[in-house]
Q: What sequence folds into this?
């Protein structure tokens, strides 16, 4: 059942098993806000203009908690622009972005990150001159040692925290099979390993939701299988994903639901089979099918 | 006697080199480690020099400030604080700009600072400059050579301390973020780092170091005037850092000593071979020489004399000291 509850003065949709449970939780709306928000991400009529070009034209969609949502569309559909807009890479023209019940529309990327929304890049951006281990260790938010003075006033506490972060990074590297390249520079990795490193950096932040921009591009099939497996495993642990991808095998096997964008607008959404059998999707991908048969 | 002359020249030369070295280290944290194209070095050096001069200097009849006669270390601390404050304001305004605009605006600000020094008589006595500035440890001996050796010791001590501090902070999580920003600022931002705040801190740290260098200079020379802080100083520092190896603090020191050596040697050479009538014009050849060295360096050894070391944070190794 879907209810609306009062959450910090704003109405919010929640899904609760039954009416009696809803009444039971009535006075604990803060708890409800956290626990029963069904949408991790809500994008409302997002518009982004680049000069005269409207890259995203009034797109609205939702990403439910715990899903692996796919975002597909032909080149130039506005997928990456939508990603960048959500992440706060640039100010948007109009629209609203709600993440985990809070409006994040005006936040720059370093602040959306702190809310638990992490993204990877279409073209991997590892810190090329830094080792894999350091690429991971720089990520956790609010590190003591990131304050200049703490390194002088509280060197012991900083070092202890560093040790914890290092252990965490080692765990992530083990999970992603990157441990054998731990001290290799980020720039020396293969394309697939860079994708894994980006995923690893995302994991280091303990995120609520990860947005992957073409995790499969330029990755050999063996490594791709591994990446898919890791995403599925993380999703089973409760992590929400939004994935842009051109590799249809990956999308169809992994994602549900799938959102389809074309020329800046949301074309449709549905399960893999619904998307595959939709005439509009075919038309968007393959170009207009002439109806008069000529 | 001959030997004594060589020694005292050498000591004097090394003291002068140490002002450049300290400034170069300051630039290195901005340019070499954060990628900030600060072309206003002379301005920060001037702020530090004037601050210490006003705080430690004697009373002049024609200025509104000064004559505080404070101990020299207090003047140096004051120079650090005031330069840091000035850098914070300038950085807050300019660091959001793209790097080419940052270069232009810092250059303009440095020129403005020099012009202020030239015109604000009540503070700086304009072109006449501030004189009779105290030199620390001066009273310990009657011999100027011993004085200078002691001052060289102080300079080496200060540089050593700053060097140690920078090497340490670059290996901290703070330095790690700085390196990440230099590698890819968009990725650093996507990893939740407030890139602007880190740049500002690096800018302030580097500029305060330049200010300290200016204070060391002022209290050694004992007389400062606006002609000490012309844009050529900024260019010299950049060449020193690039020749020594940007991103390497030891390189910045080596580059400073080498390039100051080249500058002084070309000075002596011009004095020896050019007829007195053309000495002023011939002095311009030194600038051409510096430019030539810069171009040759960038063509044949862009990494500098001492290439950048791969810095890894203290805890960022798979095997740490003392672990199995």
A:
């Amino acid at each position: 059942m879907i209810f609306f509850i009062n959450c910090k003065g704003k109405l919010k949709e929640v899904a609760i098993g039954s009416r009696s449970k809803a009444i039971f939780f009535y006075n604990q709306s803060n708890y409800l806000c956290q626990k029963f928000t069904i949408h991790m991400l809500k994008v409302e009529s997002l518009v982004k203009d680049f000069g005269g070009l409207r890259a995203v034209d009034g797109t609205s969609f939702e990403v439910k908690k715990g899903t692996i949502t796919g975002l597909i569309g032909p080149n130039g559909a506005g997928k990456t622009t939508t990603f960048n807009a959500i992440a706060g890479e640039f100010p948007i023209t109009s629209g609203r972005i709600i993440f985990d019940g809070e409006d994040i529309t005006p936040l720059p990327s370093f602040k959306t990150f702190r809310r638990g929304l992490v993204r990877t890049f279409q073209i991997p951006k590892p810190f090329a001159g830094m080792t894999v281990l350091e690429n991971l260790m720089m990520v956790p938010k609010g590190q003591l040692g990131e304050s200049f003075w703490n390194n002088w006033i509280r060197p012991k506490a900083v070092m202890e925290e560093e040790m914890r972060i290092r252990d965490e990074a080692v765990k992530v590297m083990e999970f992603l099979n990157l441990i054998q390249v731990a001290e290799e520079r980020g720039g020396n990795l293969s394309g697939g390993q860079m994708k894994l490193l980006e995923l690893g950096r995302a994991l280091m932040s303990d995120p609520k939701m990860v947005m992957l921009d073409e995790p499969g591009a330029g990755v050999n099939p063996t490594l791709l299988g591994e990446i898919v497996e890791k995403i599925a495993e993380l999703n089973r642990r409760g992590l929400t994903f939004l994935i842009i991808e051109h590799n249809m095998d990956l999308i169809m096997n992994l994602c549900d639901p799938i959102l389809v964008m074309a020329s800046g607008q949301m074309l449709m959404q549905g399960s893999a089979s619904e998307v595959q059998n939709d005439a509009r999707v075919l038309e968007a991908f393959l170009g207009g099918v002439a109806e008069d048969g000529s | 006697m001959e030997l004594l002359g060589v020694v005292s020249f050498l000591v004097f030369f090394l003291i002068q080199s140490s002002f450049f070295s300290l400034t170069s280290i300051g630039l290195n944290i901005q340019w070499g480690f954060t990628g900030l194209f600060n072309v206003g070095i002379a301005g920060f050096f001037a702020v530090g020099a004037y601050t210490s001069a006003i705080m430690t200097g004697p009373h002049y009849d024609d200025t509104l400030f000064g004559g505080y006669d404070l101990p020299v270390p207090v003047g140096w601390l004051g120079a650090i604080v005031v330069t840091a404050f000035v850098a914070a304001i300038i950085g807050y305004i300019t660091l959001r700009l793209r790097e080419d605009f940052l270069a232009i605006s810092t250059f303009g600000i440095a020129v403005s600072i020099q012009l202020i020094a030239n015109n604000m008589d009540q503070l700086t006595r304009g072109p006449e400059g501030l004189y009779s500035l105290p030199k620390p440890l001066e009273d310990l001996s009657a011999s100027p050579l011993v004085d200078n050796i002691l001052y060289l010791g102080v300079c080496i001590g200060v540089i050593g301390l700053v060097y140690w501090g920078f090497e340490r902070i670059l290996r901290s999580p703070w330095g790690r973020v700085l390196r990440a920003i230099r590698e890819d600022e968009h990725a650093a931002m996507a990893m939740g780092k407030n890139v602007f705040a880190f740049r500002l801190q690096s800018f302030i740290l580097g500029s305060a170091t330049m200010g300290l260098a200016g204070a060391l200079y002022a209290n050694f020379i004992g007389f400062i005037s606006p002609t000490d802080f012309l844009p050529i100083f900024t260019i010299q520092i950049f060449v020193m850092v690039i020749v020594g190896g940007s991103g390497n603090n030891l390189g910045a020191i080596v580059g400073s000593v080498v390039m100051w050596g080249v500058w002084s040697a070309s000075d002596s050479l011009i004095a020896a071979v050019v007829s007195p009538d053309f000495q002023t014009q011939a002095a311009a050849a030194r600038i051409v020489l510096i430019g030539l060295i810069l171009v040759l360096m960038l063509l044949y050894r862009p990494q500098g004399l001492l290439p950048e070391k791969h810095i890894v944070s203290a805890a960022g190794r798979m095997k740490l000291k003392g672990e199995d």
Chain A has two domains: 41-125+208-289, 127-188. Chain A is about 35% helix and 25% strand. The CA atoms of residues 130 and 185 of chain A lie 5 Å apart.
